[in-house]
Amino acid sequence: MSGHSEADFQLDPRLAADTVLVADWPLCRVLLMDDARFPWLILVPRRTGVAELDDLARTDRLQLLDETDRALALLRGLGPCDKINVGALGNIVRQLHVHVVARLQGDGAWPGPVWGVGTAQPYPSTEREALLARLRQA
C-alpha cells in the first residue's frame, strides 16, 4: 500500500532500546541487536503504520528483499556461520522488522530460535564500535 510514508517514521521504542544504529539504507533502518551472543541485524522499513509485509508497496517489498540479501552478505563477511535465520514475527513489536541472525551450530540457542533464550549479553563498548565500523565499511 503506497500510503505509508517515510516522513513520519519513528522507530518502535522497544527496538530502539535493544539495538544500535548501523545505517539507513534506501528503505530500511539497519540496526545491530546489542547481544554479543549472536551476530544479529534488524531491518526496519522506514514507513509509518506498517506491520505486515503486504502493508508495503510492491516496490518496497522488493527493496526489502534486496536489503535482506545485503544483510545476509554482511553477516557472512563477519566470519563463519552454519546458518542464517531470517524472520519477521511481530508478535511483540508490531512495527514491521526483519531479523537476520548468523548462527553457529552449538551456539547458546542451537538448534532452536534465538528469541527468549538466555539473557542478552551487551557488547563491550570497544567491541561494539569495532563491529559497527566493519559493518558500515562493508
Features:
five-stranded antiparallel β-sheet; HIT family, subunit A; alpha+beta
- Lateral strand order in the biggest sheet: 1-2-3-5-4
Number of helices: 3
Structural class computed from helices and strand pairing: alpha+beta
Radius of gyration: 15 Å
Q: What do we call the CATH topology?
A: HIT family, subunit A
Oligomer: single chain
Average pLDDT works out at: 93
What string, H for helix and E for strand, traces the elements in order? HEEEHEEH
Q: In total, how many beta strands?
A: 5
Portion of residues in beta strands equals 15-25%
Q: What would you note in describing this structure?
A:
By secondary structure, the chain is of the alpha+beta class. It has one domain (13-137): HIT family, subunit A (2-Layer Sandwich), CATH 3.30.428. Helices cover 29% and strands 21% of the residues. It is built from 3 helices and 5 strands. Strands 1-2-3-5-4 form a 5-stranded antiparallel sheet. A hairpin with a 6-residue loop joins strand 2 (28-33) and strand 3. It is globular and about 40 Å long.
